[in-house]
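Let's do one together. I've listed all components of the complex below, 728 residues spread over two lines.
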Amino acid sequence: MKYVICLCVWMVTFAVGGALFWASNQAQTAASYNTELATEIKQHQEKMTILSAEWHYLNSPAYLERLTLAAFQEGTDTPVMLAQTADLPEPDVVLLPVRKPEVPESFEKDAPVLVAEVKKVQPDRSKFHPQQRAVLPSQNTQREFTMVLANWTQ
Amino acid sequence: MTETFETEDIKSLSSQIRGEKSSIFDLARGRLSVLATVFIILYIVVAARVVDLSVMQGTLLQIKETQTAEIKEASVPLRADIYDRNGFMLATTLKTKSLFVNASVIQNPQAVLKELNKIIPGLPQEKTLHLLSSGRQFDWIARDITPEQQQAVMMMGEPALGFKDEVRRIYPQGDLVSHLLGYTDIDEKGLAGLERAYNDELNEGAVPLYTTLDIRLQHAMNKELAKTMKEFKAKSATGVIMNIKTGELLAGGSYPRFDPNKASEASNNQLFNRLTLGVYELGSVFKIFSTAALLNEGASMGQRFDATKPLKAGRFMIRDYHAEKRVMSVPEVFMHSSNIGSALMGQELGAERLKEYYRKLGLMDKPEFDILETGKPIIPGVWRDVNTLTASYGHGIAVSPLHLAAAVATAVGDGTFVRPHLVAKTEEQNIVTRVFSEDTAINMRKLLRLNALEGTGKKALVPGYSVGGKTGTADKPDAGGGYSGDKKISSFVSIFPSEDPEYLVLVVVDEPVGNERTYGYATGGWVAAPATGRIVEHMVRILGIKPGISDDDTQFVAPLLKYVEEDDKLARVN
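Okay, and this is what the predicted structure of the assembly comes out as:
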């Protein structure tokens, strides 16, 4: 009995010792991995700083201008500010469905539905600068979209 | 009986002795067992620890040691980056490697030099050989070498060569904005510009510094300054683009300039910041302030000034450059840039009131600005009557182009003082100081627009945009006293859109020489006005500002044109 108790005590001691050793080892491995990651992050950050500095150099106006001049022997045409993108007329788009949708039987035939109505309008040309007017096509139109109630049966 | 007794006694005694002996042995054996067990456990623990340290943790510890050193090094923050308003990098700090030699252990300096020459071109031969042969334990061979060069040197396997980590300040935009940005020394201490003014904040490394600059506009401005300087063979050219409503500097600098990456190679002439540190007598652009002061004191646009003949002031004669030789209203004085008319305005205001306005406009003191290199205006030690007259048209008082830009922005903005700045302001710094009334500011916008349409600033006009402006042509003071007849400072200040100005462009050209295209003229209208016009053209494209008016749109200045017509009628009658 005495020997059994003794053996058990020893086994428990070794087991606890082993477990502690394992836990310590795991903790150190994790800590080391953590440090390794921190170092790696730092190295990546340094690389990013270098790449960022390089990107900013390669995108500097002076460098881009040198590239442009090298690529286009005769240089580029000087652009003229005519209008902003928002001022350009809308392209032709079709908002209405190309075919009549299938109306369910339960749908009341004369019930109005909401559809888009497209109107072509002439823009107020007086709002444009003379230089803009010169390049605008004479038949230039803008599209106005309004939502109206219509009836499919019509 | 005796025998029996003896035998029994002996048996009993023997068993007694045996029993005692046995218990002593048992005790000793037990103790030995415990001791042995303890020792065995201790040995196991020690052995396990040895295996743990040498085998299991050996590699880990080695890595940890290196990593801890790296992390410790990394915990020292690098100097913070500087950016423009759109997030373009103006300055950053990179880690670099530098090569050193321990010449006490070098075997064959000649052979090492031969190898190094292949890897690092441009090494000074004699000096490097001297360092390799010196026998000293430490000498720099090359600073800031590339990773490829480092790898190649390591492949040489020379134990006398080693590397040290260093940091280096890099300016990816080169010389684009050098005067305002400044530069650092090799120890990363700011020596000029923002680098110097914000040295402590940048060294903390926590937050990058965002400036109000826009490198696209800066590049456009630089291009035009360089072009103007070359065309007119000028000594220098200075420019600034400013947001009138906020006081933000969008671009600024002067030529000649320098590359902050190689600041040690720059000459003093290149390093000199003419925008904020240089002070000049800027001439007629000062008429903006004397006119604004007069209007602010209640004078009407219709008030007339006799500019039929030169004005005598003590031993000086004040003459007009574009002499109209007639009586002129305020708009005409302004658009013909009459020195006589402006001097009379100054006379009417009086010395004290004119000085007070100049003081409120910041023209009498060193400006508060985000960099420390700012110039103190040169004003007469004793302010005499003649100084009031000459200061009204920009002579006898010298200020920096930055002073001028801030004062013009004040006169045409909403009448409150515009404090120029390079770094975003906090709310507490927004102290409003009113200099002119709003009506005066609106009148000044009209006068500047009128001058661009009908006066001396026609070459600054940009089709489709309501540009206003004022020329300035000042004779440079001679070293021996008096003024030089042929050396001039030509300037032009533009504002747009004139109706509600948002941007100010100022160009100052030092000692331009007239050419065939300008019929020999080197005045502000011929030299600086076209440059500001071209800068505005670049700006509207870059900022996407739509053209808004026709070229002959005089609606805004119509109220002033009636005074000009009346002046014409009067001149014809006389």
